Structure formats: C-alpha cells, structure tokens
C-alpha cells in the first residue's frame, strides 16, 4: 500500500533545516503579502516609503502631507535601520551595548600592521578659505599619481590633476555625476548599493533600466548583454567590488566592461570604494587591488568614471575625462560647494603609494581574518552562507531556509533589534525607483546584509544575537515572532495585537 501524499505543510517542514524540523512553525500564519506583516507595515509608514504606483493600495502617512510641495524621497537602508534601532533604544552614546552589523563602514581603530591613523589635523589660515569645487590641486595630483603608479605604469596615457575632482563624500560624487547626465537610459543592477535608488528617483533625466543579477551565476554582470545596443543604454552604473554581494568584476570581465565605453558610446560609472578590500587565495597577491583604471586606454577619451572615498572623512574623488571634471565643477557649485579644505590637505600624505600599499596589506589580512571568523561562526549556529564574499566587508545572507516569518529580511531585522543588533534588510538593495511592487515579490526579500566592518568583539555580539533568535525559534516555535515592534522609543510596542 502506497504512502499518502504529504500535505504542503508537511513538505515545507521536510525541507526545513534539521534543527527546525520539530519546531511548532505555526504554518497557518504564513505571510504572502506585505499587508499581512507588521515589519513591512512599519517600513511603508516611514516617510518616503509608501507605494508610489497603483498596484498596491496607498499607505497614508500624514507626516508627508504637512508641507505643500514637499515629497519625501525615502531614506537609504542604513538611515532607515538606524532610525528603527533608535526607536528600540539604540543611541551612539551607548552603542557599545549594541552590535551594529548594518553600518557600511570599516572599523576606525588601529589595525595590526597598518600605518598609524592620523588623530589631529594641522593647517594654516589659507585653509580656512573655501576650496575650489574641483578640490585642492595638491590632493588632485596625489590621486592622479596614486592611480598612475598602481594601475597605469608603462601606459602612454596618464591621469593628471585635471582628471580628478574632489567632492564631499561618495554620495556627493554620485549626485554631481547624475546632475550632469542628460535625458538618457541608465542601466543598473539588482542588487546593488542602496543610494542608487534615491539617485535614480531624484534625477529624473535618468531613465532607469534594471538588470536582475542571478544568484545561481554568482551575481555576475553579463558584460555582453544585448540591452546596451538594443535599448540604447547611454550609462551603466555599478559598484565594483559589489555591494552587497561581496563579489567582484575583475580581469577579462572588467576589461570588457571598460571596452564598452569605447565601443558603444556608453559611459561606465563604477563605484570602486571596496577596491582595497579584496581577499586573495594566494598570499603572494596580498596588497593588490582592482580598478577599471587599469584597462582605460585614453584617460580623456574612454568614458569611464571612477568613484572612491575615504570613509568618515567625507573626502571622495571622481576620476574621468577632463571634460567630465569641468562639468562636475559646475554641478558642485550649486549642489554641495566643495569638500572640506583642511581635511583635503590632511589627506594628501595618506595617498603616498607606499603608504597606501602598506594600508592595503594590513586591511586585506585583517578583514579576511574577520570574514573567515564570521563565516565559521554562522555555520556553527546552522546558518550556511551559500556565496561567501571575495571582496568588500559584507555577507549577503540568504534566509529562505529559516522558518516563516523570520525567513524575510525585514522581519529578521526587527527581531534582531529586540536583541540589540542591527543588520540591513535585503529589500534596500532592490533598486526599485518606482516603489510599486509587493515587497514579498522582491528578489532581495529573503536576504539581509551583514557587515564584518566593525571590530571582532562587535561581530561576536551580533552572531550571538542571531544564535539567540534561532534558539528561541527552536525552543518556543514561531508564535512569538513577527509582531510587537516598537514604533518609537516612547510609543506603543506594536502596530497590531498578535492573533
């Protein structure tokens, strides 16, 4: 006699990781739509995050209607998550009690083997004047020299200070570039850096054209995509190394991407902030970095734009053809006015090529150690990372094998806030300028981004918090999850009562 066909609930339980098979999963409460989830309702009620299209019912937020003519653009993932953390008691004065695995920043303290960090800035009276909107010439020359020394030795075409614009931070650099781009189709990828969403929404002359990257293909960008020719894509924007997946475009693939700028009259904008955070398999390669600058043939003809920054200093540079730098000077005159003058002068010695090489060696050794430590600890608590990062300091963590409702990024994030730990839900990396689709349909919905940028002790606190959530799920079942989230530090603990 054949066995009866298993029910869908039984099949779901059979595919659940071993340590959750005997848990009361409360499968009758399986969320399929954002309207059913308290974590998703909280997100929609934050200013700027209501649905902008007509596919879903409009979420009304009176706070967005108080000033005529004002439209909230929506916050980036880190800002939204920081606001939610503060509603749960987080503040920077007592941040030692929390584990912040959400902030996209490396640790700022001493790193073994690295040069000493500058702890003070000295400058003369001239530095109290406004700096040029293109930046201090000495710093522009230092940037050009660093890139020529690192990536362009022996090449006829060399960068000069005229190919460099200094701006007050990475987002300012992207905004300046976006402000000088005309009415064109702009290609972007999902997932990618959260600020691209706001940039593509705010600068409406850019018509966004998405490409969904496939996790089965390690989120690789198809360099030979036909869209570039058939859709007339004039701009491609991407982070490289990739935020949040921790992957990297390099070698032949990176060369082909740069070649597009020469062969297809397409401008390639690459945000290369994580280019020093590369984790090599061979120790002899430690200290090497990657940049599209290596594959540019003519620095004033190839339409390749590079964005990089010194985190925390709000000193960023944009590298590209000279005529681009002139345009960026003009957009900076009305967007941001230029970078901090004293800090530009203080940054000059930090870009000495030998200093930078020593810094890269130390960073790569230290952050590879932290990456391996976090991956090992996650595996030990039953969370397998299917695609470990080879660059950046992020882990793109797939939650879909966890039980409902902690198998989506927003709910997992809210549950970790109760444990004084911050991560970034994956939906913030779903670059979706129209904000129309049901969040449950996002390809990033079942992910969170974990940063191993913080010091090791903070990383351990965060992994301990994840372990507590998983133990609670195993011990108590799922009825205690998915509800009772604070709207504010003084407000009620939940939007709705749990049924």
UniProtKB/TrEMBL annotation:
The protein's required cofactors: pyridoxal 5'-phosphate
Any single biological process term in GO: amino acid metabolic process
Keyword Transferase: yes
Domain Aminotransferase class I/classII large residues, every copy: 99-466
MF GO annotations: pyridoxal phosphate binding; transaminase activity
Top-rank taxon, per record: Eukaryota
Keywords associated with the record: Aminotransferase, Pyridoxal phosphate, Transferase
UniProt record similarity statement: Belongs to the class-I pyridoxal-phosphate-dependent aminotransferase family.
Name of the featured protein: Pyridoxal phosphate-dependent transferase
Lineage: Eukaryota, Fungi, Dikarya, Basidiomycota, Agaricomycotina
